[in-house]
Amino acid sequence: MAVKPRPAPATAPVPAQAVPDASPQIALELLVHGVGGATPEQMLDDPRTVCVAGDDTAGIHRRARDADAERHPERYRDAPVPEAYCWSNLTSGDSSRALWLLLLPFMVANLAHWMRPPSARTRLARGYEVTVRILALTLTVLLVAAACEVALDIVAWQCAGHAGCSRGKSWLGFAAATRHGWWSQPGRRLALAASVPFALTALLWWLSHRTWYAYESQRPDVPSTPAPAQPAPGTPAMALPGFWYGRRSVAVLRAAHTSAGLLTVCAALTVPALRYDTGRPGLLLPVLGWTLAGVLAVFAVTACVVVARADRSESGLDDTSGPAVARVLLAGSTALPVAAVLYGAWSRPGWASHGRLPSTQAFSAITVGQGALIAVLAVAAVLLQRRRPPEFAGAPVAMHGLAGPAVALLGCVLGGVMSGGVAQRTADWLDRGGTPGRSGSPLTGPPAVLSWEASVIPAALLLILMVAAGALWRLRRRQAGLCAEVDAMYPGKRHDRSRTRRIAGVIARAGLTDSAPALVAVVGAAAFALGAGAVAGAWAGAGTPGEAARHAPAAVSALADTAQSLGSWLVGAGFVALVTVGRRAYRDTSARRTVGILWDVGTFWPRAAHPFAPPCYAERAVPDLTWRMATWTRATGGRIVLSGHSQGSVLSAAAVWQLEPATRSRVALLTYGCPLARLYGRWFPAHFAPTRLRDLHGDMRTWCNLWRRTDPIGGPVGVSPGAPVDVGPLLDPAAYGRDARHPLPEPVLGHSHFQADPAFAEQRAELLARLRRP
């Protein structure tokens, strides 16, 4: 059972002068768990624990008998005091957080910012980052535009304006055109429906603002000597004091993206009314409409400029709220909806809704604009990769530096598919099972580009299944080739074919992680081709896939209708599956290990490109670890073994980078199941390339990394040949069959239970022996 937190004596360590003779001898083992999380009782292997610092979201725990260890250092001369930092509730907890998965495109776009290849060309690197931020802005516009398409176009304009669709829908009957009531005019129906995208934009702003204070507002440990305004060349960005404190940049981006969302809704209200007013008798409404459209255009350009200039200030802790233009932009954007609603709801008795709203061009423009930005991003990435600094030459980089553009492309495709699928599914639902756009249907349906994007979903899934089948075939071949190596790992044993194949299969599946760049490249190329085909089909003037195949043979026409309907159903099923898997991942530890790998990688990075992405847990966890190590070593003069597993090893390395040299000299790093080189070094080379890890090892006194071949996530760090860091590969399973020491079959541990290996205790003891007081 967990004991409630103790009062201040357990939270604040005893000052060094209270134990002047013995305090330098005390040592602390600070455990940091990884993906999947762990309870304090599991980490400390004791049912009675106390929380000595922090809260239920992230806290530091000890065994109850160790709560006052600093007062009795003589008890801990032979072993360190175990202490667990539990941060799992930063990424899990209540199952309602699974709704964050619906903002997956935003998180993916934010990842592209951190995948920039390393380069000394600051202008080109800044151009890469600006391009990613503008691309992220288009995703916000796409999401809000999709909400406008569903609420304003499909529901308020098409369905409420047609008697065949609004009949029998009591929730829509009061605004139906056949009622001839106050809400029956098209402009007023649109103004009412605009409350949905307005509320969505407000919700995104509120979530971003609230999660900043809950997760990312923790100030890092301020160095005793002020950091220079311009860091020295070659200084790792993660060693800068403001890296994990992006208050100003997030505030500026939040203001710009909120403004962009509000401006998108205002444009969706203004453009249809302005098209109707233009050429009609009277001068007042056209003048008001064009004036409002001009103001919207000026604000839109201003939002792009603000996003382009929202650079991160990492050399210091910037608590400012950003430039005044960002605040003025947000204030003006919150006032414009009132003007847009009043203008759109103005009485126009002769106005009737037919066809679609003029949104087809908007979605096509967004798709083409995203494609152009990705092309610019790819060119910048190639130039950066070709002109890497000498110290980064030869470092393994995923997709030869094109990982960022490929991931950004996947984010855009994911956003487009989700938008198109939701719009198509809504139209199919309102059409009572018919096919929108075909004869006999009361609905024209969503814009053609969205229908085409929904229709290519079955083809994309078929391609992914083909790639998965190829990967499975290669896995079987790899498993067969590893059997001889597995037998050689256990000499002198009586080998069993099934046992050997089982171990070889685990090693082969663990190696699939290294094939991720090829998979992303194939899926990205296919997504680009299918997306280009969708835009081309929409621009060809043929309408939806069903309309395009109207005069084709019956088989082709049926196939087009099937793809269009199946795509919309697949998106609906995808949303349900996404939320279901997310909720299960927050409740079930095994499911969280499966889903949480990519999720924890994505939310590890600060929100540098998209403020509406899920919050960054590292902006809370890294300052927590840094403050704990700095204050504890200053108060006790003791030594610390920072023990990180899996994602905890990444947090530990990031925290060590933030320490001052005097504190870092008292800290040893013990990592296991560590993805620093295998995943982060390849996908985020500017921050975790081998030269960065070598610098980290050079700045520390001791570092040891344990790894296994059966681990699908962790691997060797591979730095400092003269002073090896890696210990392994550890034998897994510990025994091939039954013997006197292992009377029961030993399981394959893979990514877990490193502390059960004898090498763990040996390396920890060696680190403590090598670590001396400076």
TrEMBL record:
Domain of life, per UniProt, equals: Bacteria
Q: What residue range is the signal peptide?
A: none
Q: Which residues cross the membrane?
A: 98-115, 127-147, 190-207, 251-271, 283-308, 328-346, 366-385, 397-418, 449-473, 518-542, 562-582
| Coiled-coil region list | none
Q: Which SUPFAM superfamilies match?
A: alpha/beta-Hydrolases
Q: Which UniProt keywords apply?
A: Membrane, Transmembrane, Transmembrane helix
Q: What is this protein called?
A: Integral membrane protein
Q: Which organism is it from?
A: Actinacidiphila yanglinensis
Lineage, highest ranks first = Bacteria, Bacillati, Actinomycetota, Actinomycetes, Kitasatosporales
